[in-house]
Amino acid sequence: MARQGGRDRGVVFKDGSWWVRLYHEGKEVWRKCDSKSQARSLYGKLKAQIREDKYFPKAKKREPLLFKTVAKYYETSLNGDGRRPGDNQARIQFWVDRFGKLDVEAITTSQIEQGLSDLRAPVAERTGRLAKGARRSLETLRRYYVVLHAILEKARKRLKEEKVLMINPASDIQLKKADNTLVRYLTPDQKQALFDALPHRYHPIVLTALNTGMRRGELLRLTWADVDWFAGTIKIRETKADEPRHAPMNSLVQRALLNLKDIAKPSASDPVFPFYPRYLSRAFQRAVIKAKLAPFRFHDLRHCFASSLARLGANDRTLMEAGGWASPAMLKRYVHLGPSTVWQAVEKLAESSTGSKIGSRPFQKEKEAAPTEATP
Are 295 and 220 in contact (CB under 8 A)? Predict the structure, then answer.
């Protein structure tokens, strides 16, 4: 044991205990001992291991990163971005109830698959719009999965900063693709039935949705300062793509908004449609059921907007600009043409060829020129 100034070097009495202090690869290492003799012995042993390259310091034990901690941070970040968490609160809570007390590194792919399987099972009692014994749709399942994947991805990035390698266990799961081919648009008679069943105070917002293609959230965030009467447009500040855009107002929308403005006498910062999202959705669904249009959602008014413009001959570029769609593939999900519209387009081929809506001259001439079979 090396001594310095009458003392054992590397053996320190501190805070009522004996300690070993040494340096390894430029880092100071402290080890607590029960007595001075134990400290002297341990110091010599550790120094010998360092000289022989046999010293492997114990890794510092990492505090477990609980799933609940990351989930709460994820929920807070949604609120911090100015977005309404909405249904995400229920989805986050489902996964917190399942994995809340587990370290994120302890969560396995099989556990996630079991959770998704339980979600897909028939509900034991009525939940929201689901009746007892009903199943959640594949699209609902996908939304629960997206929330879980996002939470685990935040945990993975946080551990990466601490130089801990973690693979997101949700990344290996392949969900069945939901069928989004349900045709959602209304005929003129169905639109009239919807307005007849809807309380009058909600008529302007539904009319605006049908004629601008704006989403429910965009309509409810709209203020009178966003209405440009001179240009005839509505400025949508917060969009799904995080890029502001302008929606043109036709005469129906302008007349409806002018009537609202004359009645309310609002200031520039007042909302155009001062409704709570829950009450609006509830009233809309009641009207849909009363008008016998179910299944139909408020967002499907956006489908009606796109389909109506397409039937009037608007091209894809015009439709994308009017509705704020970024790609033709996304637009395809919203444009639905009725059978009569397609038939009228195809029938124009016959009209351009024969000049007649009924019958075909070339076919008739060919029929007359065809030889007849001789009768015995």
Answer: no
By the 8 A CB rule, do 169 and 210 touch?
A: no
Amino acid present at 16: G
Any idea what the CATH number is for the domain that residue 256 is in?
A: 1.10.443.10
Q: Are residues 138 and 198 in the same domain?
A: no
The C-alpha atoms of residue 197 and residue 318 are separated, in whole angstroms, by 32
Range of the domain at 107: 67-161
61 occurs within a structural domain: no
Q: Which residues contact 61 (CB under 8 A, 6 or more apart)?
A: none
What are the pLDDT digits (tens) for 215-225? 999 999 999 99
Name the pTM for this structure.
0.55
Query: Are residues 93 and 16 located together in one domain of the fold?
Result: no
For residues 200 and 205, what is the distance between their CA atoms, to the nearest angstrom? 10
Sheet holding 233-236, edge to edge: 227-228, 233-236, 245-248
The Cα–Cα gap between 56 and 29 comes to 12
Instruction: Name the residue among 245, 223, 210 with its Cα closest to residue 321.
Output: 245
Say what the alpha-carbon torsion angle 220, 222, 224, 227 is, to the nearest 10 degrees: -130
